[in-house]
Design a protein that fits this description.
This protein has 699 residues and is α/β, with parallel strands linked by helices. It is built from 23 helices and 18 strands. It has an 8-stranded parallel beta barrel. A hairpin with a 5-residue loop joins strand 4 (126-130) and strand 5. The longest helix is centred in the last third of the chain and has 33 residues, at 656-688. It starts with 9 loop residues before the first helix and ends in an 11-residue tail after the last helix. Residues 1-16 have low confidence and may be disordered. The structure holds 4-O-methyl-alpha-D-glucopyranuronic acid.
């Protein structure tokens, strides 16, 4: 279904070409009057200055204008265009670095525009300003900013924006806006639901350079500036990415990414000094180990200018780490940080550290506590070029979790929020689940009631990619909105989920109003729908082991992974209170800690995450827990069927391929939601013996 579109007719092929470009398809604008208006500004293109990012901006503006308006802009070379402020030739798009343009011959035409300088923009910020003669200035504080300005302007054209009297100034909220790939050297992708790896194929690296370039364009268009190309579970083959005979291939990929302002990172194996370097130890305090990392890192920078740094998963899920040597995570991270510091590199150190060999009989050990317990005592102990990457919830990307208390606890350490765009636990890109409403809740969470939200404390964003070799990039076409939306939020966390969704729809699916209204409702409702037929009230899991797809209420109940619901005939949930449970609730600032501590004040949607309660406990909604479970499973399955009906209602306004592909997935989702409904309802009816108050069919 997502392979190459064989045997398609001419018309379909044209659609397919755009389709492969995701939201950068640059389909011709249908509204003739709008085209004429835009063409009046976009007829001429002047790039002031030179450099790889500026060249990328030039290429992108040229192809966007050609596609959207039907003819390429006249490219006027800097030397020929002394009179752009005068007249011959009329207005132009002028793109360059702010300080260069301000001091250039083009400044007069901008007199009224009052161009900002590089300091006002910062190295990645940009301005879009209308000049006196109708020209538009696309200015970056640095070269990346100029590229982002170009994409920002293109987005305005794609979404039907008004391009008169522009005075836009944008600066990214965070310096680190990263995507992590869980791609393996053999070409597979861990938790990948969109085909194979873009970067690796059967041990070869960078074979799909055209596609990687398109990938870089898409990432730059949403402001992504860092990419880790390999899985945090670094196996033998990926350990060798640091080896001499592999680095040149990695460097070829890095070159393509760099032209779009993206720094390449590698996930590294903490035991690489042993496995690759032949040393007897990987002890971070052993001078020979530190020297090995220093030399290896220097070689990486010799081959890959602008290399970003290392991503590390240590002492987690069987990965090696400093604990083996009786050292702590600051010892491990700082040793790597020192190797990177002279080159300007960063260590991204993951806090997903917990005991994955837990005894299910032991109800005191709580996986949710682990990140905080390991890392809070180390606050302030990390070098400046270490970033701790923290999953948004304390467990593992469930559809509902509280916000990780570690995000709010650390005050003297650089941190990055880790999100998961790939839908491991949220329907694996077979179910529709627009994740932005959930991410927005995380970002807006104000645990201490002192207006210090997660969005304010996160120093950066990292997220697990949902991208693969499928023609539409993400398997489920509508899952593209999660990728797009992640980048937009990492640039500006105050953007509303709905506004971002609408942008994506216009850019990827076109300007049809009925399509936009229908799809935005589908997107905005989808997370709540998914939540309402899967594990209830924040308790999580209940999935098939290993691949994590589909219902299995006890799939993880007697496992060593620390993921339990403790349902018995009387009740369900995990007691994480300080008074009688694992004490996890006490890891929050006082306001949140006391709200979570009591079932009376704990929000309904997290009740079973924090409390073990009888099935007849009344929620704030007025329903009992058991009736809530039944009602929401029935409603959820009905609403999943409603997504399919909504999509069918716009069938005639969609390209047939798009319609059919998405329909197939929505039909599966509707059927699979019924399976979730029936398995969960049956399980809880059999456990509790309490019938559904409405007498619906439970098996
Ligand atoms: C890359 C979960 C996933 C693993 C993943 C891990 C992590 O456990 O199931 O596939 O490993 O998270 O984030 O490191």
């Amino acid at each position: 279904m997502n392979g190459r579109y064989e045997g398609c007719g001419k018309e379909e092929r044209a659609v397919y070409g755009e389709y492969e470009q995701a939201w950068l398809g640059y389909r011709r604008i249908e509204d003739g009057a709008l085209r004429v208006k835009y063409a009046a500004v976009c007829g001429r293109l002047i790039v002031v200055g030179a450099g790889t990012e500026l060249e990328s901006a030039r290429l992108e503006l040229r192809s966007a204008i050609a596609g959207l308006l039907g003819s390429e802009p006249e490219e006027v070379s800097d030397a020929e265009s002394a009179d752009v402020g005068g007249v011959p030739g009329g207005p132009a798009i002028i793109v360059g670095l702010a300080d260069t343009v301000r001091e250039s011959r083009y400044a007069p035409a901008s007199a009224a525009a009052d161009l900002p300088d590089a300091d006002a923009l910062g190295s990645e910020g940009y301005a879009i300003r209308s000049g006196t003669n109708g020209s538009v200035y696309l200015l970056g504080g640095g070269a990346k900013g100029a590229l982002y300005a170009a994409f920002g302007f293109i987005r305005m054209l794609q979404t039907g924006g008004d391009i008169g009297g522009l005075r836009i100034l944008e600066r990214p909220a965070y310096p680190l806006r990263m995507i992590d790939h869980w791609d393996n050297a053999d070409g597979t992708v861990e938790r990948g639901y969109a085909g194979g790896s873009l970067f690796f194929d059967g041990g070869r690296i960078g074979e799909r350079m055209g596609r990687i370039r398109d990938y870089a364009r898409l990432q730059a268009s949403i402001g992504i500036n860092a990419v880790a190309i390999n899985n945090v579970n670094v196996h033998a083959e990926e350990t060798r990415l640091l080896a001499q005979d592999r680095l040149d291939d990695v460097a070829r990929v890095a070159d393509v990414l760099r032209a779009y302002g993206i720094a390449l990172y590698l996930s590294v194996n903490f035991a690489a000094p042993i496995e690759l370097g032949g040393l007897g130890t990987a002890d971070p305090l052993d001078p020979a180990v530190a020297a090995w990392w220093r030399e290896t890192t220097a070689e990486v920078y010799r081959r890959i200018p602008g290399f970003g740094g290392y991503v590390v998963k240590a002492d987690s899920e069987h990965r090696p780490g400093p604990f083996t040597y009786g050292r702590n995570h600051a010892d491990g991270a700082n040793m790597l940080a020192d190797a990177l510091a002279t080159h300007g590199g960063t260590v991204i150190w993951r806090c997903f550290v917990y005991d994955c060999r837990q005894d299910w009989r032991d109800r005191r050990t709580d996986r949710a506590r682990a990140a905080y317990d390991h890392f809070m005592p180390l606050d302030g102990a990390f070098r400046d070029n270490v970033v701790l990457q923290i999953k948004h919830g304390p467990m593992d990307f469930q559809v509902r979790e509280p916000v990780s208390p570690l995000l709010l606890g650390l005050r003297r350490t650089r941190i990055a929020l880790e999100l998961q765009i790939t839908q491991e636990y949220t329907g694996q890109q077979r179910h529709l689940c627009y994740l932005l409403p959930m991410w927005k809740e995380v970002l807006d969470f104000d645990a201490a009631g002192d207006d210090r939200k997660v969005a304010d404390v996160a120093g950066g964003f990292a997220a697990v990619s949902n991208i693969g070799t499928d023609a539409n990039w993400t398997g489920h076409l509508l899952a593209q909105a999660n990728w797009y939306g992640y980048g937009r939020l990492a640039w500006d966390p105050s953007l509303p989920a709905e506004a971002i969704g609408r942008e994506w729809i216009r850019m990827a699916l076109g300007p049809d109003a009925a399509v936009e209204e229908t799809v935005i409702r589908m997107l905005m409702d989808s997370h709540a729908i998914y939540e309402s037929y899967t594990a209830p009230l924040g308790v999580g899991w209940m999935v098939q082991p290993n691949h994590h797809y589909g219902p299995s209420v006890d799939g993880y109940e007697y496992s060593p992974w620390g993921t339990y619901h403790y349902a018995d005939r009387d009740g369900i949930g995990v007691d994480r209170t300080v008074a009688t449970g694992t004490g996890y609730a006490g890891q929050y600032p006082a306001a949140a800690a006391s709200a979570y501590e009591s079932p009376q004040t704990c929000p309904d949607e997290l009740l079973l995450f924090f409390h073990h309660v009888p099935y007849d406990t009344r929620l704030k909604s007025g329903k009992t827990v058991i009736q809530h479970i039944y009602d929401t499973r029935f409603e959820g399955a009905d609403r999943a069927a409603g997504l399919l009906a909504a999509w069918d209602s716009i069938a005639d306004s969609l390209p047939s391929r798009t319609y059919v592909e998405v329909r197939t997935r929505l039909a599966h989702q509707a059927e699979h939601a019924r399976e979730w409904r029936d398995q969960l309802n049956t399980y809880f009816y059999r456990k509790s013996g309490i019938p559904d108050a409405l007498g619906r069919t439970i098996y």
